[in-house]
Amino acid sequence: MAPSSALPAILIFAATYLVLAIGRLPGFRVDRTGAAIIGATLMVACNVLTVTDAVEAINTDTSCCCSA
To answer: CA-CA-CA-CA torsion for 65, 43, 36, 25, nearest 10 degrees?
Structure first.
């Protein structure tokens, strides 16, 4: 991660973590899953992560277990 992307990364992570802690985004129809997806998308959109890094970060064991 480049030093210039540290601030956006921290802000996106903090906002996502806050929504995860609260359980939903007040005023919006976004729950924990939606917040995680939005946070991941923002990390890619702000060039904090590459698409390849984001795909490699997905834990398929957990994803398959939760969707079964």
So the answer is: 180
